[in-house]
Structures are given as structure tokens and as C-alpha cells.
Amino acid sequence: MSWRPKAITISVLIAGALALGGVAVPLTNHPKFCASCHNITPSYDSWAASSHKEVTCVACHVRPGVEGWLHDKVWAGTRDVFIYTFGTPTDAHNLKASVDSDVCLGCHRNILRVSEVAPRDLPPPVRDVGLVMSHRKHMEAFRLQGRGDGCTSCHSGVVHERPIKGYPIVLPRGHVSADSKPWLPDHPDGSYLRERALKDCFRCHDGKTEHQGKLLDRKCETCHLPDKLKSFLSF
């Protein structure tokens, strides 16, 4: 075979691959494609009812850039397809997925500019309980720890859990008396998602954990305005 037929064959194969990719990539980016795996269906349903229902799965779970696309989309996606087809898929209540904080900040970077020291700066119901904390300081702390998932350390349920009082869930608020009923997740006992959902600020502010040589205490005044303590906190 001369070089010309070879070149034509290679060109046809490349063109076919590009055409296939041009069809396949947008198809696999659609949330309904993700939901075609039965163990993802609960996550799809919670996403469809969340404040992020206009944001696709890949927008949060695939980091931007070539490296993020190759690892999070191509590699992880192909692996999951093989596990779903030939192996034993992870139970829906034990799924583990990470969202890089840089992805969150791509839309929510303005949160780093909020002073968060006065009630007027806070959205309800955070304002009602006088919760004041610096997102910028927390993000810097997570960065120093090498944790790229700093945002989801506190906001893990903002998309895939039930809202509290019409407000997208951020943290379990069982220690706040403003809630008529303590919030409990739907996941079964012993599951990863239930354990994750029940973690709150005390996982770090436990009186034992240190940051830059300073002990993180768990006093109410560390996070809440003093004048709100008697009204809203149960202890």
C-alpha cells in the first residue's frame, strides 16, 4: 500500500474518532446519562430538586482543564462504567465523590469578600442564629492542609440532601433550638453518606484539633454572636 491510501485510511479513522467523540462527549455530559446507572439515581433525584438543578453533574465533578477532564471524566468515567457493567457497583448510600473547591469558587468566589462579622452580611437562617465565620480563613486553612475539597467539608449536602426549612442544607443543625425537629439524613445507619451528613463544625472545633499551633476550641462564641446564644442555641 502506497503512502496515499495509508494517509487516506488514517485520515478517515481520525475523522471518525473525532465525529464519534463529538457525539459521545455531549451525550455523556448530560445528567440523565449519569442517572442511567441505577446507583446514581438517588443522587440524580436529589440534584433535580436542589438549588443546583441548573448545573450539570460534570460542571461540579469534573475539574476544568485537560488534566481534570482526562482524570475526572475519561479515567474515572470509564472505570465506573466497567464496574457497573462487569463488577459490583457501590451501594447508593456509600458513594464517595469529591468536588474540588476551585470548581465551587468558579461560581461562588464572592463569598470570600463577605465580611461575615455583622448580621446584615448574612443570609437567613444563618443571620437568625448569628453564625459568623470567615470563609476566606477557612479556605486558607484547608489549602494549608492540602485539602482540595474544603468547600464540601462543610457544604457536602448542599445538592444531595434534603433542604432544611426551605433553605439549602449546609450543616446538620441539631444543636440549634430554632429547629423544631433535629435534622436527620435519610441514609441508613452505618452508611458513608449518613456519617458524612451528621458531621458538623465540631469535627474540627473539638477542643483537640490544632491549626498553626493554636487549639480550635468549641465555645459557642467562636462561631455565634453572643446575643443570639440564649434565643437559638440549645446549650
Quickly list its features.
metal-binding, Cyt_c7-like, 235 residues, globular, 10 helices, Multiheme cytochrome fold, 2 strands, 2 domains, two-stranded antiparallel sheet
Overall mean pLDDT:
77
- Radius of gyration based on Cα positions: 22 Å
- Give me the secondary-structure category: mainly alpha
What number of structural domains do the residues give? 2
Give the termini separation.
Answer: 83 Å
Q: What low-confidence regions span 5 or more consecutive residues with pLDDT below 50?
A: 15-23
Number of E-type strands: 2
Coarse morphology: globular
Physical arrangement of strands within the biggest beta sheet: 1-2
Give the helix tally.
10
Order of helices and strands: HHHHHHHHHEEH
Strand percentage lies at: under 5%
Largest sheet: 2 strands, antiparallel
* Relative helix content: 40-55%
Write a compact overview of the structure shown.
This protein has ten helices and two strands, in the order αααααααααββα.
Question: How would you sum up this structure, described in words?
Answer:
- It is globular and about 55 Å long.
- A two-stranded antiparallel ribbon has the order 1-2.
- β1 (210-211) and β2 form a beta hairpin.
- It has 235 residues and is mainly α.
- 42% of the residues lie in helices and 2% in strands.
- It has 2 domains: 3-89, Di-heme elbow motif domain (Multiheme cytochrome fold), CATH 1.10.3820.10; 101-232, no CATH class.
